[in-house]
């Protein structure tokens, strides 16, 4: 049995893995899909105090309190910022790290540093929640199926601004021995350069030309097979 910890992206929550999780569990694996502080079912905790460091602590504490070792740690989109921080904090607990069309920042980089196009895409937070951005138009991220749009739009919640402005801390430990897989969903061009840099750094890069930014939603069977092949 492998333990998978799946970390969602901006505006989302643990719910975002609903199509992928049962496919992994059906093969006998343990799957944890935590919601990061201030989002979705933990949205009541939202505010300008929630940043990247909060979310790194969320997942690091989960691994410690659940006594998890040999974990396959998966991050989607902004979740790549989080899992990179977790890897630097507790590499001894991680057997493999997987980025699904995600940030893979360097220490000292914020999400906005890594992808400078984002401030224009996100705009300014509205007056009703000045601490966080409203969800963007998901069609820009490759979600076009009406049922998928309805499902995701109903569950997405504002994203605290500090999460994308706070830089990744320097790692506490050397994590160079942990294998890395990067899934590049090439139909959405946001992370093309990130995938190239990952390959240059020695990661295994898998490119899906027909997949947009949410392959675990749009192609759950394919995503499950990739993760199961790591077991």
Explain the overall architecture.
The protein is of the alpha/beta class. The chain has helices at residues 21-25, 52-65, 79-89, 111-114, 118-122, 146-155, 162-165, 192-200, 215-218, 220-228, and strands at residues 3-7, 30-32, 71-76, 94-100, 132-133, 159-160, 180-185, 204-208. Helix 2 packs across helix 3 (79-89). The longest helix is centred in the first third of the chain and has 14 residues, at 52-65. It starts with a strand and ends with a helix. The model has no long low-confidence stretch (mean pLDDT 96). InterPro entries: AB_hydrolase_1, AB_hydrolase_fold, Sec-Metab_Biosynth_Hydrolase.
List strands and helices in order, with pairings.
Layout: E1 3-7, H1 21-25, E2 30-32, H2 52-65, E3 71-76, H3 79-89, E4 94-100, H4 111-114, H5 118-122, E5 132-133, H6 146-155, E6 159-160, H7 162-165, E7 180-185, H8 192-200, E8 204-208, H9 215-218, H10 220-228
Parallel strand pairs: 1-2, 1-3, 3-4, 4-7, 7-8
Antiparallel strand pairs: 5-6
Helix pairs in contact: 2-3
Summarize this entry quickly.
The protein is of the alpha/beta class. Helix content is 32%, strand content 16%.
List how many beta strands DSSP finds.
8
General form: globular
Sequence of strands across the biggest β-sheet: 2-1-3-4-7-8
As for the number of domains, it is 1
The largest sheet is: 6 strands, parallel
Which strand-content bin applies to the residues? 15-25%
What is the CATH T-level topology?
Answer: Rossmann fold
Order of helices and strands: EHEHEHEHHEHEHEHEHH
**Range of helix content:** 25-40%
Nearest-integer average pLDDT? 96
Keywords: Hydrolase
GO molecular function: hydrolase activity
Protein name: Alpha/beta hydrolase
Domain AB hydrolase-1: 4-225
